[in-house]
Amino acid sequence: MSNQVNSMNKGLTVKDLVTTGIFTALLFVFVLVGGVFFATNPVLTFFMPAGGGLLAGPIYLLLIAKVHKRWSLSIMGVIMGIIWFVTGMHWAFALGYLIMAIVADFVAGAGQYKSKKLNSLSYILFSLGGTGSYIVFFVDPNGWAQTMLGNGTEQSYIDTMQATANTGILIAMFATAIAASAISAFVGCKMLKKQFEKAGITA
């Protein structure tokens, strides 16, 4: 156990940073591919966090298996947040991924990045970062609309979102995001069993 803790507390090496960068790029692509179908539809857009969380679990868990050190996941969240922001997403979407990546880092770190259950929970929490923009939408719809209009979103798209939004949609958004990311993490654990054994990750 002491060796695992010492390994976790060692600083990130250049190799670790390169690995984190590569897997962040892969993760971004998988989240984008999973969520883009929902994002383009103003009625289904609330389920973008679920779509984004459905495919990326194996990539996320493989990153942990490859690096399993503090701050790797946080750095991933910073990079993804910057990418989302510069590509025109609402600032709360970028901030959501940044905050939840840091939270996810500490959750996985609580098990020294060696627990499948905590690593999977970490991924679920990370995936909830995609709800950030929609939370702001429900809290401040007019402010959200003004920001998105400035980012180039059409008024008709926003009008349809506002007509569709209700408490049931909000609950369904969180429920589907949690379910989809949990399924993705489960599949990832099955796919990466050999990688986990090599990294010393246990149930």
From TrEMBL:
Secretion signal, residue range per the UniProt entry:
none
Keywords attached to this entry = Membrane, Transmembrane, Transmembrane helix
What Pfam family does this protein match (any one)? Trep_Strep
- Which InterPro entries would you find in this protein's record? CHP02185_IM (IPR011733)
Organism superkingdom: Bacteria
Which residues are in coiled coils? none
**TM region positions:** 21-40, 46-64, 71-87, 93-113, 120-139, 169-189
**Protein's name according to its UniProt entry:** Trep_Strep domain-containing protein
